[in-house]
Amino acid sequence: MGETRDRAFGARPAAVVSGCVVVFVLSFFLRWQYVAGSEEMVHLLQDAARYFTNAYNLWHHDAHSLDPPAMQEPKTRTDHTPGFPLFLTLFFEDPPDSRTIKPQVQMAQAVMGSMTVVATLLLAALCLPFGWAMLAAVLVAINPHHIALAQVMLTETLYTFLLMLGLLAAIYGWRYSKLLLVLAGMAMLGFSGHVRMIGFVVPAVLAPLLLLAPAAVASRSLVERCKVGGAGLIGLALVYFWYQQFSAQYMQAPPATEVVMEEGWTKVKPAETYVTTSATPPRFFVEGVSHVIPQNGDPKLRYRTRQSFSEVPGSYLLWNCCGRWVYSWHFDNVYNGGAEIYPMRKSAFIDNGLQRVLHDLMLWAHWPLYALAAAGGFFVVFTSLKQLLRGRCSDAFLVSASFLGFVVALNIIHYLPRYTIPMRPLSYVLASLALYSFVSWLLQRRQFKMGIQSQR
Questions:
Q1: How many CA atoms lie within 13 A of 446 on its CB side?
Q2: Looking at residues 6-35, what average pLDDT do you find?
Q3: Backbone angles phi and psi of 297, in degrees to 5
Q4: Contact present, 189 and 166 (Cβ < 8 Å)
Q5: Taking the model in full, what pTM does it have?
Q6: Which of 256-265, 304-313, 342-351 has the lowest mean pLDDT?
Q7: Beta partners for 282?
Q8: What is the C-alpha separation between 45 and 340, in angstroms, rounded?
Q9: Cis peptide bond prior to 95, omega within 30° of 0
Q10: C-beta separation of 137 from 117 below 8 A
Q11: Which run of H or E residues covers position 396?
């Protein structure tokens, strides 16, 4: 594990600023380069079109609805989270035109993606030497999934930005007893749940852990702990209360209106539906058609099997014990294959030499990095148990708990690889931590052997 540091980020201020500038410029250049050299097959497709429709109804009718854009008031509501449509309304003008709005959103997402890389660097530097923290940040900067997300109007870029910035603020404030920073961090994490509902898992896991004292502050009193922990709980509670108010005002259908329209524009699913659906293996898994998610050979293969547990118990057990945990982290994204979510008319990952090399490099490193992240996360949790008994823990423990909590919750709800993309920054922090620990162990062992030989 990285040694605990009393000084923020464990490096000189000049080195920290220089590192932030370097990773921001690298990240923004790659995202700008990708957006400039890529084009989707369809301008607005599937979820992107629905988010734009939702944003239009919010902007024009003050209604959280997926009804087709029209002059009259929308009649139905949706269970889509409101955060991303609210973000899109920042770029609307009268009349709203997706052809002019989309480039602005893409530029904003390129900036947010680059800021996410900076937040990753600073968060990693709380529990790693600064050079190793740079490794984690560079991995996020060159990750093809994060690069490609700057192109599409989907929730991942905004959610990951709020997640990493919120974690950085909350953990930094927790370590140095800065209550307002903890509150701001938890508010950002809470609002990230309005962008993607699964985002509420991270602040829910983090809030009670803020009552623990950092390993570097053994003298922190119970009162200080309660203040920091209380700030975290208040931040989570306030944003949850705001969501309840928003839900009551915008998301509920009027009493006289059916929730589900005949056209199928609005669909509200109960929470248990997601759990039971995810637990049912897909048809391609049961039939053994492919070891990866099929692309478009037979669309029916994407659907869940109609066979019950009693008919194929082995497939159900293998899917729930192993299958969906592997598929959720697959490099191939959704059903399109590769790192891109939607079919592309042209792609910088093919036409641009640098982008192609980085894509292939990260494809090769994908599973080793995930293995390192999982090993590092579990190792941090296990080695922190002794500290937890004394009411203390490290920055790395909070990162590991957030990562593992999210992965477990997501796999209970859905297995598609696209939904694990926001966790890549934390996984690279933990992978760098595991690699650093292994290298440190090897060096210590070598020094120990050299010491014994010199005594002889």
A1: 6
A2: 87
A3: -65, -50
A4: yes
A5: 0.88
A6: 256-265
A7: 304
A8: 13
A9: yes
A10: yes
A11: helix 395-413
Structure tokens at 133: 């923290």
Q: Is 69 left (phi over 0), alpha (psi -120 to 50) or beta?
A: beta
Q: Please give the Cα distance from 92 to 20 (Å, whole number).
A: 31
Contact 141, 150 (CB under 8 A): no
Torsion sign (Cα): 319, 320, 325, 331 = positive
Question: Are 430 and 372 contacting, i.e. CB atoms less than 8 angstroms apart?
Answer: yes
Cβ atoms 157, 197 nearer than 8 A: no
Residue 147 near residue 355 (C-beta atoms within 8 A): yes
Copy the structure tokens of residue 145: 């999934």
Dihedral sign (CA 20, 400, 375, 406): negative
45/49 Cα distance (integer angstroms): 5
pLDDT tens by residue, 197-236: 888 889 989 988 888 888 777 677 778 888 888 888 888 7
Span 315-325, mean pLDDT? 85
Distances (CA, A) of 65 to 78, 89, 94, 101, 251: 5, 14, 19, 20, 7
Q: Do the beta carbons of residue 322 and residue 340 sit within 8 Å?
A: no
At 452, list the tokens.
């014994």
385: alpha, beta or left, given left = phi > 0 and alpha = psi -120 to 50? alpha
